[in-house]
Design a protein that fits this description.
The structure is a single chain. By secondary structure, the chain is mostly helical. The chain has one domain (3-289). It contains twelve helices and no strands. Helix 1 (3-25) runs antiparallel to helix 9, helix 3 (63-89) packs antiparallel against helix 6 and helix 4 (92-114) runs antiparallel to helix 11 (253-264). The longest helix is centred in the first third of the chain and has 27 residues, at 63-89. The radius of gyration is 18 Å and the shape is globular. The N and C termini lie close together (7 Å). 54% of the residues are buried.
C-alpha cells in the first residue's frame, strides 16, 4: 500500500476513535443524538459538496449511482442506531472491539468475493493478527468476559454492528472506486438520508427530543464534524487505489485507540492482556501495510 494511503487510513483511525468516545458519552440519548449529529454533519459539509456539484464534479447521476447512494444511506443509518444502542447496554471496550474486529474480516471477504481482489499470504497473516489482537483486547484472554454483566449484550450488538460495517464498507468502496463518486459527496448524501429518515421520530415529539439533547449539543457538534471526516479519509484512500482488503483491517487501529481511550478516559478495566492485544494488532497492521 502506498505510504500516503496508509497515513490517510491511520489518521482516519485516530479521528474515528475520538468520535466514538464522544458518542459513548451521549449513549443515553439514543436515536435523537444520531439525528442531531447528522444535522451538524449535513450543515458543516454542505459548502464543500455544493461547490463540487456546482462545478459538475463529485458524481455522475445514473440509476446505479442513485441506487448506491440510497443503499449506503440505509446501511449507515442501521449502523448508527445499532452502535448507539450497543453503547447504551455495554462498555465501549467490549462493543467497539467486537464491532471493529468482525468488520474487517467480513469486509475482506467481500473484497475477495465481490470486488475481485486477490489476497497475499502476508496480507492474510496480517488480517489474522489484527483479529487476534482484537480478541485479546475484547476478552483479556478470558472467555468469562463474555458472561460478565454487559458482556453478552456487548457481543451481540458489537457483532451486529460489525456486519453492518462490512456491508457499508463494500458498498461504498464500489461506489467510489467503480462509479467514481467523490467520498465527501457519497458521505454527505448518506448523512442527509439519515437525517430525513430520523426526522419523523424527532418531529413526533420535539419537546422530548429537545429535553433529551440538553447538555449534549457540544458532543453532537464534535461527532458531526469528526465522523464524516474519518470516513472521507478512508474513502479517499480507496479512491487513490488502495485495496479494500488492506484498508479495512488497517482502519481497525481505531479499535485499539478506542479501547485505550475507554480504559484511560472512561476508567474501564485495563490489564496486561489488553495491552498485549494492542501489540498483536499493531504487528498485524505493519504486515498489512507492507502487503
Amino acid at each position: 500500500m502506498a505510504f500516503a494511503s496508509l497515513l490517510l487510513v491511520i489518521l482516519a483511525s485516530v479521528i474515528h476513535a475520538g468520535w466514538n468516545l464522544l458518542a459513548k458519552r451521549a449513549a443515553p440519548v439514543g436515536p435523537v443524538f444520531v439525528f442531531a449529529y447528522n444535522l451538524i454533519a449535513c450543515l458543516a459539509y454542505a459548502p464543500w459538496v455544493f461547490y463540487l456539484l456546482a462545478h459538475g464534479e463529485g458524481i455522475v447521476w445514473s440509476w446505479s449511482s442513485a441506487g448506491f447512494v440510497l443503499l449506503s444511506g440505509t446501511v449507515h443509518l442501521a449502523y448508527s442506531l445499532c452502535l448507539q444502542r450497543g453503547y447504551q447496554v455495554a462498555d465501549l471496550s467490549v462493543v467497539y472491539p467486537v464491532a471493529r474486529g468482525s468488520g474487517p474480516v467480513l469486509s475482506a471477504l467481500g473484497a475477495f468475493l465481490l470486488l475481485g481482489e486477490t489476497p497475499s499470504a502476508q496480507g492474510l497473516l496480517g488480517l489474522l493478527l489484527v483479529v487476534a489482537g482484537i480478541g485479546l483486547i475484547a476478552t483479556k484472554c478470558r472467555l468469562s468476559a463474555f458472561r460478565q454483566p454487559g458482556g453478552q449484550p456487548g457481543i451481540r450488538w458489537g457483532a451486529a454492528t460489525g456486519g453492518l460495517i462490512a456491508t457499508y464498507t463494500v458498498v461504498d468502496a464500489y461506489a467510489v472506486k467503480a462509479l467514481g463518486i467523490a467520498p465527501v459527496v457519497l458521505d454527505w448524501f448518506s448523512n442527509l438520508m439519515r437525517f430525513f429518515f430520523l426526522a419523523p421520530f424527532v418531529i413526533a415529539s420535539p419537546r422530548r427530543a429537545a429535553a433529551a439533547m440538553r447538555g449534549y449539543w457540544r458532543i453532537a457538534i464534535g461527532v458531526g464534524l469528526l465522523s464524516p471526516l474519518s470516513y472521507i479519509l478512508v474513502l479517499a484512500a480507496l479512491t487513490s487505489g488502495a485495496p479494500l482488503s488492506l484498508v479495512a483491517p488497517i482502519r481497525e487501529m481505531s479499535m485499539m485507540i478506542g479501547a485505550l481511550m475507554g480504559m484511560l478516559v472512561l476508567r474501564e478495566e485495563v490489564g496486561p492482556w489488553r495491552l498485549a492485544g494492542c501489540g498483536v494488532l499493531i504487528a498485524g497492521v505493519i504486515l498489512l501495510s507492507q502487503a
